[in-house]
UniProtKB/TrEMBL annotation, chain A:
UniProt xrefs under Pfam families: CbiQ (PF02361)
GO cellular component labels: plasma membrane
Membrane topology: Multi-pass membrane protein
Chief localization: membrane
Stated name of the protein: Energy-coupling factor transport system permease protein
Keywords assigned by UniProt, alphabetized: Membrane, Transmembrane, Transmembrane helix
Family matches, as InterPro entries: ABC/ECF_trnsptr_transmembrane (IPR003339)
Source species of the chain: Anoxybacteroides voinovskiense
Transmembrane segments: 20-53, 60-82, 112-133, 230-253
Record localization: Membrane
TrEMBL record, chain B:
Keywords: Membrane, Transmembrane, Transmembrane helix
Transmembrane residue ranges: 7-24, 44-60, 88-106, 113-133, 145-168
Protein name: Energy-coupling factor transport system substrate-specific component
Domain of life, source organism: Bacteria
Ubl conjugation found in the keyword field: no
The keyword Metal-binding appears for this protein: no
Organism: Anoxybacteroides voinovskiense
Length: 259, 193
């Protein structure tokens, strides 16, 4: 997802593969983190990265951020209302809020928030084309996979246009009623069959032009590793370390494990 | 015979999956729109996120397609800026892997509703394993957890099992699937007649 009005920051210049791997690392750290104090610090750090260094105007960033708030509330609420616990706060019908379920719910909300931020920071600062070229060059992904993905990403605007064509065609023929299953099929069949035909044609064309999976091929874009990757790595490690340190020195809640 | 998937297979799988990637992305807002109704009604529509694997496998019918499709669809969703961010990518890998296991269990030779539903169940189990680590679902009250599991399994079988296979039947009627499938035994029998 990219918009035109952004300025390039150091996050745009980090190597996409390195960025992805570091983020997957942070993902697993968050996955096995059960202390809400640490997690809140970590989320704040990611929030700073998001607002300061993705290079987009503030009004866009706030707009991007809105759905996350909904995710936060919806993720936190089921666990808060229906989770198990011993110290009852509120009991109202089926809803049973306990101290344990409340903290667990909040923890889940912050976890969802940090996953979402990791993803959004990545997709706002990475061009898909560079990502797949970098995957081929740094992580040795096979070209036939990477170029298939590149072709697929390139087709997205065409698919959206086709979707609108189908929508208009159905409207003109007065065929936009009916049950939800039939409706979905009416859209899915033409879109999928056209996509299959198009993919087929692209593959034939690529092979006709001698596309091969040879090991030592050349690339149009040469993607390398730079000092920005080191900065990114150190930034993340520093953030995790600082989150743990601050959580032990200035904890927000006396809870250290929400399980 | 070349080993593994050919360029045509990969490209077709990826392009189909990106169509589903768009659906996956749009399904997100729908999912959290349904969520406030409570009592895990949202789980009934969760199964849509497994559909790329089953549909792509039914169309191309080759080993590895289900896994590739689910990874491609989730990375499509990821690149478009999913609300769930990075987690969709890893959920995709696990869900695809479990769907693949279901198809492999029948040595990629059966393409009926039963096997597809089994793959949908497989993906559901994959997503539950991730939820177990991520969402502490085991800490829900027992009645609530049972409702949650039931809704997710039923939704997955209906959407990624039954609906997916009827969708592919409709696609077969257009004749487009013959472009990508390898020649079957019946085709050779036709020639020998």
């Amino acid at each position: 997802m990219r918009l035109d009005s952004y300025r390039e920051t150091w996050l745009h210049r980090t190597n996409p593969s390195v960025k992805l791997l570091v983020m997957i690392g942070v993902f697993f750290v968050v996955l096995f983190l059960h202390n809400p104090n640490v997690l809140i610090n970590l989320s704040v750090g990611l929030l700073l990265l998001f607002f300061l260094y993705t290079g987009y105007p503030m009004k866009y960033l706030v707009l991007f951020f809105l759905p996350f708030f909904v995710i936060f509330v919806s993720t936190a609420s089921s666990m808060t209302f229906f989770g198990q616990g011993t110290t009852t706060w509120v009991r109202w019908g089926l809803v049973h809020i306990t101290k344990e379920s409340f903290f667990r719910g909040m923890h889940l909300g912050f976890r969802a928030l940090s996953f979402a931020l990791l993803g959004l920071i990545f997709s706002l600062t990475t061009r898909p084309v560079y990502l797949f070229y970098s995957l081929m060059q740094q992580l040795k992904v096979k070209p036939k996979y990477a170029y298939s993905f590149l072709a697929g990403v390139r087709l997205i605007p065409m698919m959206i246009e086709e979707f609108q064509t189908v929508q208009n065609a159905l409207k003109v023929r007065g065929a936009d009623g009916g049950g939800i299953v039939n409706k979905m099929k009416r859209y899915a069949v033409p879109l999928l069959s056209q996509s299959i035909r198009r993919a087929q044609r692209i593959a034939v064309a690529m092979e006709a032009k001698r596309f091969s999976d040879a090991k030592n091929r050349t690339f149009y874009y040469q993607i390398g590793v730079s000092r920005y990757d080191v900065i990114f790595f150190v930034w993340m490690i520093g953030l995790i370390g600082l989150s743990y340190y601050m959580a032990t020195v200035f904890p927000y809640f006396p809870v250290t494990d929400v399980r | 015979m070349q080993k593994g998937l050919k360029l045509t297979d990969i490209l077709t799988t990826v392009v189909i999956s990106i169509v589903f990637g768009i659906v996956y992305k749009l399904w997100g807002p729908f999912y959290y729109f349904v969520k406030p109704f409570g009592l895990h009604i949202d789980q009934l529509i969760y199964g849509m996120w497994f559909i790329a694997a089953t549909v792509a496998f039914l169309i191309i019918r080759k080993p590895g397609v289900a896994l590739l499709a689910e990874i491609a669809a989730s990375s499509g969703e990821f690149i478009m800026g999913s609300e769930w961010g990075l987690e969709v990518l890893l959920y995709g890998v696990v869900q695809g892997l479990f769907a693949e296991v279901a198809f492999a269990a029948f040595r990629y030779k059966r393409f009926d509703v039963f096997v597809v539903s089994l793959a949908a169940i497989g993906s559901t189990i994959g997503s539950l394993i991730m939820d177990f680590y991520k969402g502490y679902i085991e800490a829900l009250a027992p009645w609530n957890l049972a409702l949650f599991l039931l809704a997710r399994f039923v939704g997955a079988i209906l959407i990624s099992g039954v609906f997916a296979s009827s969708l592919v039947k409709a696609l077969e009627a257009t004749g487009v699937t013959q472009l990508v499938r390898s020649a079957s035994k019946e085709d050779f029998d036709q020639l020998n007649r």
